Amino acid sequence: MPTCQNCGFKWSWKDTMKLNFKGKWPCANCGREQYVSGKSSFWGSLLFSMPFVFLMNYLRLSHGVGWLPIILLFIVYLPVASLLMPFVFKLSNAKNRFGKPIE
Question: Which residues pair with 33 in a beta bridge?
Fold first, then answer.
């Protein structure tokens, strides 16, 4: 789980999910706004999408699986990946993208 960059407080899974959907969320301990760091946002998105893309291509090309099973697999994969995303997040005091601050 991520920790606050201001006070070092370890965030709960629930607060991290709120941060994921809102874009910023105050620390439960110090109250300072925290953001998902640009680097962890990139890696989280990559880890979220790439396994499914590779699995989909493998099943389609190697085993000739149709689209319906792949869509059903995606419906199962989406919530599981969403539940695991907070474990890869790191927090930042400033909103930034790829290391550059955003106003």
Answer: 26
